[in-house]
């Protein structure tokens, strides 16, 4: 009878043991910015509790992580890779079947543009277009000259400072009565939005997503009416020596989840999850704002996300995996 009970107990445990054995060790890059750290910790939570993986988060950054994946085949996963900075090298890794792009981790891409506060666009709908903005410089007070409209640009040394200056020229903003304002720093730029919102004043300037600022303060991206000319943007708008800049919207940045080929073939079920896991900028902005308000790190933010966004993450996993994750909560 004792032997029968032991065998029965072993069989009862078999599904759990077998499932855990199906997924082994997985290493994930925990990049050093908030949205990437959130993604890495969400992935860790889901793989550990839903797939039975043993997940190790390792410090990462765009260039070092990409290089390590190409040369050392580790880590297994980079959840939020801004690929444009090293696209040629990453593409070579894919062509040589060493890497895979599994999914656009930001489904609408990294976003840049000129923005105005929503309360201002609600009051003056024409401000949603550059044509309307150019007609009303008086709505965007320059802090040092009441006769000028102000466009907040990027801090010196940032690449977006070059693109902002070139688009300022392309859109003939100086002729319309505008001047670029140097915010001095990232904190200065975000602080100018916060001050404008607190006072419900006019504000116009460059910003990007996903960010906590755009999650906390609702903004409207100004339409240049030009569409996107990616070739001109790359060849001219982003270059200091651009002699004849023409209007173009910012093309979305390619933000993807990169995995090693070894991981994709070794852990096909876990890899399948990475082909579906993606965030919109709107959702990520909201999560980043929550992180900032609560001074939460990636681990705490991931738990908050899993607990409060079942409608999102359950679309990324099979029903039985979702059940295991819910049970873990």
UniProtKB/TrEMBL annotation:
Keywords: Signal. The keyword Signal applies. SUPFAM superfamilies: Periplasmic binding protein-like II (SSF53850). The keyword Signal applies. Residues 1-20 form the signal peptide. Residues 25-307 form the ABC-type glycine betaine transport system substrate-binding domain. Pfam families: OpuAC. InterPro entries: ABC_Gly_betaine_transp_sub-bd. It comes from the Bacteria. This is ABC transporter substrate-binding protein. It comes from Marinomonas phaeophyticola.
């Amino acid at each position: 009878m004792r032997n029968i009970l032991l065998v029965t107990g072993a069989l009862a445990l078999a599904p759990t043991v077998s499932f855990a054995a199906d997924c082994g060790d997985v290493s994930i890059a925990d990049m050093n910015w908030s949205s990437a750290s959130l993604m890495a910790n969400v992935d860790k939570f889901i793989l550990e509790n839903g797939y039975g993986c043993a997940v190790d988060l390792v410090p990462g950054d765009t260039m070092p992580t990409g290089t390590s994946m190409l040369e050392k085949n580790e880590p297994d996963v980079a959840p939020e890779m801004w690929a444009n900075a090293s696209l040629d090298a990453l593409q070579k890794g894919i062509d040589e079947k060493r890497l895979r792009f599994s999914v656009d981790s930001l489904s609408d891409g990294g976003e840049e543009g000129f923005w105005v506060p929503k309360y201002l666009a609600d009051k003056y709908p024409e401000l949603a277009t550059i044509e309307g903005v150019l007609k009303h410089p008086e709505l965007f007070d320059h802090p040092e000259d009441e006769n000028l409209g102000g466009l907040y640009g990027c801090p010196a040394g940032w690449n977006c400072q070059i693109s902002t200056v070139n688009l300022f020229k392309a859109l003939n903003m100086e002729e319309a009565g505008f001047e670029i304002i140097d915010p001095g720093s990232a904190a200065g730029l975000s602080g100018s939005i916060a001050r404008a919102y607190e006072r419900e004043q006019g504000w116009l300037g460059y910003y990007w997503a996903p960010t906590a600022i755009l999650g906390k303060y609702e903004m409207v991206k100004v339409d240049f009416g030009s569409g996107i000319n990616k070739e001109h943007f790359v060849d001219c708008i982003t270059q200091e020596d651009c002699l004849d800049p023409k209007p173009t919207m910012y093309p979305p940045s390619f933000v993807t989840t990169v995995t090693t080929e070894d991981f994709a073939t070794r852990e096909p079920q876990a890899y399948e999850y990475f082909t579906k896991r993606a965030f919109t900028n709107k959702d990520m902005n909201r999560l980043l704002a929550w992180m900032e308000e609560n001074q939460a790190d990636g681990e705490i933010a991931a738990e908050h996300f899993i607990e409060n966004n079942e409608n999102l993450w359950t679309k990324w996993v099979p029903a039985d995996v979702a059940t295991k994750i819910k049970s873990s909560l």
